[in-house]
Every structure is written in structure tokens, then in C-alpha cells.
Specification:
It is a single chain. By secondary structure, the protein is an all-alpha fold. It has 2 helices and no strands. α1 runs antiparallel to α2 (about 25-50). The mean pLDDT is about 75.
Length: about 60
């Protein structure tokens, strides 16, 4: 797992703080960036079985 993957999960906690201003363009950019990182993490989970840090998978 790379440092950018670890930062992805930390970003989930900081997005509300970064997007609390009135700039909707900044908010949209941050949301798209977070969605992209989550999609990459999901793709890695599906293709390689690599589970990101701080993620606990429970049985279905």
C-alpha cells in the first residue's frame, strides 16, 4: 500500500473541514478527488485483494 492510499482513508475525516467554506467549486473538486481515491481503493480490493489500512471486512 502506498502513502497515497493511506492518505485516502485519512481524507475521509478531513473533507468536512476542508469543504465547510462557501466555495462550491472547491467542494465539488474535493468530493470528486475523494470519490476517485475510493474507486481506486475498491478496484485494488477487487483485482488484487489488497485491503486498505483501517478497513475491517465483515462476513456477509
Amino acid at each position: 500500500m502506498t502513502a497515497s492510499d493511506a492518505a485516502c482513508w485519512c481524507a475521509c475525516e478531513t473533507v468536512p473541514a476542508l469543504t465547510s467554506n462557501d466555495r462550491s467549486a472547491t467542494r465539488k473538486t474535493m468530493i470528486v478527488a475523494l470519490a476517485r481515491k475510493l474507486l481506486i481503493a475498491l478496484w485494488r480490493l477487487v483485482t488484487t485483494g489488497e485491503v486498505p489500512e483501517r478497513v475491517v471486512l465483515s462476513p456477509a
